[in-house]
Amino acid sequence: MNLAQVEKSTWVYVAISFLLFVVPFIATGRSVQFLIIQIFVFGIFAMSYDLLLGYTGIISFGHVMFFGVGAYSTAVLFDRFDPTMLTFALAIIISGVIAGIVSLIVGVLTLRLKSHFYAMLTLALAGLFLVGAEKWRKLTGGSDGFTFGLPDILRDSFALYIVSALSLVLIFFGLRRMTKSPFGKVLVAIRENESRTESLGYQVLHYKVIVSVVSGIVASYSGVLYILSLRFVDTSVFATDLTIDVLLMTIIGGVGTLIGPIIGASLIEFAHHWLSDLSDVHWIFERWIILYGTIFILIVVFFPKGIVGTLVDRFYKWRARRT
Amino acid sequence: MDVLFSLAINGLATGMLIFLLAAGLTLIFGLMDVLNFAHGGLFIWGAYTGVWTYQMTGSFLGGIVTAIGVGLLLGLVTERFIVRPVYGSHVQQILITLGFMLVLQECIKVVFGPDQKIVSPPSYLEGSFIIGEIVFINYRLFIIAVGFLIYFAFYYLFKKTRVGLIVRAGVMNKEMIQSLGVNIKLVFLLVFMVGAALAALSGMLHAAYSGVIYAEMGLEFSILAFIVVVIGGMGNFKGSLLAAILVGLTQAFMAYYVPALSLATNMLLMAIVLVFRPQGLFALR
User: Fold this and answer.
1) How big is the CA angle at B17 (ends B12 and B20), to the nearest 5 degrees?
2) Mind spelling out the 3-state secondary structure of A25-40?
3) Is the residue at B281 inside a domain?
4) B282 in a domain, yes or no?
5) A105, A109, A115, A120: best mutation site toward chain B, by most B Cβ within 10 Å?
6) Cα distance from A314 to chain B (closest Cα, Å)?
7) Is B66 part of a structural domain of the chain?
8) How many domains is chain B partitioned into structurally?
9) Which of A112-116, A257-261, B118-122 has the lowest mean pLDDT?
10) What residues does each domain of chain A span?
11) pLDDT tens digits along B185-216
12) ∠ at Cα B18 (B16, B23), nearest 5°?
């Protein structure tokens, strides 16, 4: 590969990625590292969501089902088998396979439907998963949940930080490669005008199914990491609240970009932790959803591209004016 | 036999409440092709403000009137500031109304506190009577009566009045009705407000029916309303009545006979309908 052909933005992302690995040496506190791990986890989750919402223009209200599948398969494996790194590898593979199969079935059955029907159906399916997790007590422990042991290496928050940072970086570059490929261009074409893409000869349904499978597998991987950081699982990993969180992250950060969801995830996670802490000062801070909901509405109306998209647009306009 | 009968009455009452909630939603979709996920927000605002008035003044009727008033007002605000900027784009409508739903739900917690509230029906609607072996609970019969009353009132409105004619024509072809000189936007605003008021009324009636209200009901009932609208067929008024009764009855019977599955009933129903008959069970087209 000729280095001169690499885009400038890629170098910026590579530099930021290296910085991520320096951070844990500066921020050594457990709680800070935990917060950053959460940001990575939800960054990955939000990126997978943006593949559907931002790139392909599909609204799913049930994305949390893949997250939950990843979380539960990891937890159950660690609970049933010895907590070794082998189990961890097994968990990643098995959760990926299950999520892949589930998203394939869901996709084939439902992606033919119009946007609002698809949104409702995925919501219903995620609801079924939640009920299933509550009722299948033998496996899931019901709403009480259960704790499980981890391999010694992963107990250390530093190691977990490295694992999640590495995952975030790899997935980011992988998805970036995918969205910049011809395949990614077809996805954007579907978002912009589905019937025209179809009449150009593309099998729209195939593309949609493939992207939803990829997105489902990535989402389940974020569920795996999430549950490793918590070391405890209960039915909240299937809760609709998580889908709404990830929706807020993606929209606020910026749809149709990969860095946007990560920024959105940081903002929402900070809000979760810090604004909730501030509730001792004034109770209104506990209701931070109002603030974010309002921002969300304003962004949908006035800046449909989110923070990152709007900034990028401004940047291009500014550069065009200079030349 | 008596069990079957009381389950049926129970289901019918639930169905009527759901119908009041879903009726507005289905009209809004049929007329203006707008998906309103904030509908459950209007429902809880009706419930909370209605109950507040009811508990302050002791007048149940006052509570109902307050709920309807608040519903009309919120409908006006929602249509004007939330829905109007995003006509024509389903994706944006879903997103923005969901955001507004969250705001409405959190505002409830700010104004009325985050804890759940206990409500009981007024004394003149409490109690029950027995015919044969069947127990009739007064408040449930009251809800069923209100539901049918409103259904027939709207049925009359649609079939016999000029406003109803315009609304029906608008559902069929809104460009045509516009070119005939009708201000369809105004009609839509009115329909939206009436739909919101019905949702608020449903919230108030539901509050005394279930005995407890909490802010998270907003999202739950948004989803429930959508389930009913999807089953009945989007934009189909009669369909939403039948679907609401179907959902209510299924809920009641499943809760009694297969309690393990009762939580999943609605979702299953909708999933089946969407996969095999996405236009809705009672759709004409």
Assistant:
1) 120
2) HHCCCHHHHHHHHHHH
3) no
4) no
5) A120
6) 22
7) yes
8) 1
9) A112-116
10) 3-252
11) 888 889 899 999 999 999 999 998 888 898 88
12) 95
